[in-house]
TrEMBL record:
Organism of derivation: Alectura lathami (Australian brush turkey)
GO terms (BP aspect): cell-cell adhesion; desmosome organization; heart development; intermediate filament bundle assembly; protein localization to plasma membrane
Bias type Basic and acidic residues, positions: 94-107
Source species, domain of life: Eukaryota
Localisation per UniProt entry: Cell junction
Protein name per UniProt: PKP2 protein
Gene3D superfamilies documented for this protein: Leucine-rich Repeat Variant
Length: 296
């Protein structure tokens, strides 16, 4: 666990170690099957996998990544840009929703486990069943890492979490946990997921009222609470920017007074949260059909 946080070279060596990742996954699967999601070894295993998933899309060798994530469409040779998971054009990136997702292997080995749907479901199971804060945080953090990029792998993981594995209820529960870093990581994961336009309505329907409910009534009193508040505002921004319906959901959840209060603080310590709230307010005002409701 300590070595897995030693930096990029350490991560690469551990990812390349024959059987290591397979063994970690095997152990966690056994712990879940034996109804022991809270043992220390399971926590250690998940924390290692969390660390090994950090910057995965960037650090995988290009040749290896291309063999897994070859795009199933012809890309014009004069508009190609190298991507960590295969060559893809700017047009493909802009129309990510139209790009067929890669097929995953039925029997993953080694590093292939790190983004496989089976491991994604394991993380979601641990989030739901474990009461150890470090295990919860590491599971959420691994999913946060895997959804952080812009290529087909993060997009596929996000779709698995939201639509295929029905992970939002478990993540939503973590928003209301008292442990501040678990809550912060859950919000950061939702922020990543909310960047996918095809998932925004599902996310808004499932967790938007909860996101509003965890916004503080006044300016947060600590750095970690300030970062969490900023992430909530940016997540709400993603969910409401292109949807008047979702903006009305925020309004009906009494989010506007909280956002105004947070935006009005000009203290340097809380500038990150107040800036995020101001960006959200500006975006909400762009829905002209809601102006009368805002004024009321």
């Amino acid at each position: 666990r300590n070595m897995s946080s030693a930096g990029p070279e350490g991560r690469k060596k551990m990812r390349d170690c024959d059987g290591l990742i397979d063994s970690l996954v095997y152990y966690i699967q056994g712990a879940i099957a034996d109804h022991k999601p809270n043992d220390k070894a399971t926590e250690n295993c998940v924390c290692i996998l969390h660390n090994l998933s950090y910057q995965l899309e960037i650090e995988l060798p290009e040749s290896y990544a291309q063999s897994i994530y070859m795009q199933r469409r012809n890309i014009s040779s004069n508009d190609r840009t190298p991507g960590c998971f295969g060559t893809r054009s700017r047009k493909v990136k802009e129309k990510q929703q139209d790009t067929p997702l890669p097929e995953e292997k039925s029997n993953p080995r080694g590093v292939e486990w790190l983004w496989h749907s089976t491991l994604i479901r394991i993380y979601l199971s641990l989030i739901a069943k474990s009461t150890r804060n470090y295990t919860q945080e590491a599971s959420l953090g691994a999913l946060q890492n895997l959804t952080a990029g812009t290529g087909p792998m993060p997009f596929a993981v996000a779709q698995t979490v939201v639509q295929k594995a029905n992970g939002l209820p478990s993540i939503r529960t973590m928003l209301h946990i008292s442990h501040p870093t678990v809550k912060k990581t859950a919000v950061s994961l939702l922020r990543n997921l909310s960047r996918n336009t095809s998932l925004q309505n599902d996310i808004a329907r499932e967790v938007l009222p909860d996101l509003v409910s965890i916004l503080p009534e006044s300016v947060p009193g600590s750095d970690i609470a300030c970062e969490t508040t900023a992430s909530v505002c940016y997540t709400l921004y993603n969910l409401t920017q292109s949807s008047s319906h979702n903006a009305r959901l925020l309004l009906n959840a009494d989010g506007l007074p909280k956002i105004i209060t947070i935006s009005m603080n000009d203290s340097n310590m809380f500038s990150k949260a107040s800036k995020a709230a101001s960006v959200l307010l500006c975006s909400l005002w762009s829905h002209t059909d809601l102006h009368n409701a805002y004024k009321r």
